[in-house]
């Protein structure tokens, strides 16, 4: 920029001097103006190049920033099972479950495999008051279902309450209750088939060894579409993908049972493991606890017992030694007394014999 300014100043100076010189100065002034215009064009191209380069760097920086922001929102956790595609409610199959109640309450368990339009029918025949009408309503997980409150008339000495619920995903499962005033109710508990075999005691294995964790669905239950394994991570569950760590995990899925093999155990592998039987409507879960201990851990009770035995034997020996010392002291005292008695007898012996002889005479 300084060179351009000095060049412009030099050109202006020459132009001014040539103007004073007459007609030839006109040509020189024209040449000077042309040089000045060319310089301005060069400067303009230079500035434009700088501006274009700056804009390019801005665009590149913006793209990099957008890429970094998008990467931050990538979920690094392994996704769980893919939910089934949604089916229009009017195309869902219909299933009917009905219960007749004579007492005051009843609980009916309903296992579902697929989305369904479920018609729940309640019949109460245990009303002793024989009221002509009674108030009926429905609840979902304790909350009253909107627009479900109605008047139920008595027909053939019984009350009937019916409603259709669209069960399309896991959130629709739960407890559905029909209530006849405050006198009677029927609970329908909707769930996927549950894993019945639950292990109460933990699996124990050693550091460096391997552990086999199993889950099994009962033979009377429907076969799940597949199985998944998870490990508790705080309050969350992290899915185990055996293909990502083949040296650490192996999953063996069969029809109604699954096995998870964990190799090269470390203490951090201990914790809760969840198996999931996948059905179209939901995933049924069960958990098993794994404890990983060091090889020296089982020796601790044995060492404690040995130490207790040694202490007990030492106490017994000390006691016997003290008793033996007391007995020897007592024996020594008894021997001394006996010796003293015999000594006294010997000293008195001749006198007694003389007196006895004198009495005989």
What does this protein look like?
- A hairpin with a 3-residue loop joins strand 14 and strand 15.
- Helix 1 runs antiparallel to helix 2.
- The chain has 361 residues and is α+β, with helices and mostly antiparallel strands.
- The strands form four sheets. Strands 2, 4, 5, 6, 8 and 9 form a six-stranded mixed β-sheet that branches. The protein has a five-stranded mixed β-sheet with strand order 10-17-16-12-13, with no helix packed on it.
- It has three helices and 17 strands.
- The N terminus and C terminus are likely disordered.
- The N and C termini lie far apart (170 Å).
Keyphrases for this structure?
32% strand, five-stranded mixed β-sheet, six-stranded mixed β-sheet, disordered C terminus, alpha+beta, flat, 361 residues
